[in-house]
């Protein structure tokens, strides 16, 4: 799959969009077959997700981690985990993956991409909003920082060799080096599906020659990221509203904007800039009506994403004047 076949952009084409299901099961890594028990036991214990590379030649498969607050394995229970210190962004769990290895004499293409089967395939030609959050974990072994983390849609669940997946292509990647070890970085991008893809994989799909990285000490050999809050939702046009009853007013706004949901309680509201930066995010309990102060926002167009139930979202545009 060539990246030119799927265009990534932030399109603001919706007046009031309908509810859309998150197509990623277990997107916040809250569910497992049992509590995490061993480092690298991701495939056996994290529900729905798995290592994207499954060798058929007898080689040892990559070993990503699932961190969650239960069980007896203290090094797998946030915030003080095996490869750093980090609270989950959403819920009690997250995944951890190596995105780069830099060690003389060792296969430099080693990566730990993880994949999941979508709840339903993408529809060719439809728009989808892809969101995920990452943060770098720092330990004695994971002192490197790198770029190129991203995602790739495929119709293949697993790859029998790393060269089949680490092929210097991605549906989307982060060009800048992710170095922050404290604050979660939330990425939002919109794509147009060029095929009815059934699987998505997250990781670094570029070899070391095409990846920028920095070494903070002479000891560590890995760049390692935590991944949380993954969602893929269809961006619905006004004609696809599916009976949604979310009101956003006034629009345009300059001081305050009000949100009203007639049918469902509002759980979270996220507002994103035209560049995909999250400028506002707040959780709510038991509210169907609320008001948000937007007086400090720069003038321009924004995307408002409202989470109203476990797997339902409403997305609309907002203009600040």
Structure description:
- The protein has 321 residues and is mainly β.
- It folds into two domains: 21-234, Sandwich (Jelly Rolls); 245-320, Immunoglobulin-like (Sandwich).
- The chain contains two helices and 23 strands.
- It has helices at residues 42-45, 162-165, and strands spanning 8-9, 19-21, 50-51, 65-68, 80-81, 84-85, 93-101, 114-117, 127-136, 144-146, 149-154, 172-173, 185-192, 199-204, 213-215, 222-234, 246-249, 256-261, 266-272, 278-287, 289-293, 300-309, 312-320.
- The strands form six sheets. A six-stranded antiparallel beta sheet has the order 1-13-9-16-7-4, with no helix packed on it. A five-stranded antiparallel beta sheet has the order 2-23-22-19-20, with no helix packed on it.
- It is globular and about 60 Å long.
- Residues 1-19 and 237-243 have low confidence and may be disordered.
């Amino acid at each position: 799959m060539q990246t030119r076949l799927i265009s990534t952009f932030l399109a603001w084409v919706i007046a009031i969009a309908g509810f859309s299901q998150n197509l990623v099961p277990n997107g916040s890594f809250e569910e497992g077959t049992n509590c995490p028990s061993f480092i690298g036991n991701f495939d056996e214990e994290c529900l729905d997700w798995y290592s994207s590379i499954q060798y058929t030649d007898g080689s040892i498969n990559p070993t990503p981690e699932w961190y969650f607050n239960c069980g007896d394995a203290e090094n797998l229970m946030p915030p003080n985990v095996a490869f750093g210190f980090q609270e989950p962004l959403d819920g009690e769990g997250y995944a951890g993956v190596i995105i780069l290895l830099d060690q003389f004499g060792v296969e430099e293409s080693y990566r730990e991409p993880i994949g999941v089967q979508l709840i339903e395939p993408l529809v060719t030609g439809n728009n989808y909003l892809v969101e995920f959050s990452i943060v770098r974990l720092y330990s004695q072994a994971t002192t490197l920082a790198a770029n190129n983390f991203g995602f790739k849609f495929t119709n293949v669940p697993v790859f029998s060799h790393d060269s089949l997946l680490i092929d210097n292509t991605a549906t989307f990647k982060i060009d800048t080096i992710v170095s922050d070890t404290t604050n979660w970085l939330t990425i939002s991008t919109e794509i147009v599906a060029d095929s009815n893809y059934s699987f998505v994989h997250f990781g670094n799909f570029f070899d070391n020659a095409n990846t920028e990285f920095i070494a903070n000490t002479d000891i560590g050999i890995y760049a390692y990221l935590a991944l949380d809050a993954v969602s893929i939702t269809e961006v619905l046009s006004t004609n696809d509203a599916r009976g949604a009853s979310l009101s956003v007013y006034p629009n345009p706004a300059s001081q305050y904007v009000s949100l009203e949901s007639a049918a469902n309680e509002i759980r979270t509201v996220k507002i994103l800039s035209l560049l995909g930066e999250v400028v506002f995010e707040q959780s709510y309990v038991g509210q169907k009506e609320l008001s948000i102060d937007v007086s400090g926002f720069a003038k321009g167009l924004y995307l408002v994403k409202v989470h109203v139930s476990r797997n339902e979202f409403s997305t609309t545009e907002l203009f600040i004047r």
